[in-house]
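Follow-up to my post from last week.
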Amino acid sequence: DVKVTQSSRYLVKRTGEKVFLECVQDMDHENMFWYRQDPGLGLRLIYFSYDVKMKEKGDIPEGYSVSREKKERFSLILESASTNQTSMYLCASTPTGGKYEQYFGPGTRLTVT
Amino acid sequence: EDQVTQSPEALRLQEGESSSLNCSYTVSGLRGLFWYRQDPGKGPEFLFTLYSAGEEKEKERLKATLTKKESFLHITAPKPEDSATYLCAVYKAGYSTLTFGKGTMLLVSP
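User reply:
Got it. Predicted complex:
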């Protein structure tokens, strides 16, 4: 079974703090994604990566950056957290071989106070 | 602009009362349509992929179908444990990402 894990289920940070969210997948997937999910807005893509050290902006990259130093690990960084970044953050990965379904991690509920 | 619209936004059923959820899309070059289940506070769980019009997939009480403009998720004799938000998403030829609908929240009462 595909397994996508995220470093924290719940996180509380203060405004201005630097925040790291980590995602690890164990299925040798090439593509990895970071989303945020908010009530009424659905899933919104922040960044994605299709290879080590490669990254692409999604629909809402402002205020975020990412890092992918190893194939299995994709990190989301909030350089200076703000209250409007309070959200559920979801990581996903996609298998290779022409299949496009994404497998999600359990999510991190981030609260910025 | 590509769009994925799910209806209804919320659906309340009695246990055993069958119904369908709708996912309509306006995407040229559809390469796949995906259904997910999401429980509160958790990540979406992959259910089905449909690739072409006329295709059907089944899993327990769920059956997904696809036409050229929409997909249906039929729920037969639902149970309370089927309560969740159901998301659909589409993959477009030439892109690396999925476009998600906002979901249908299903509540099945005993």
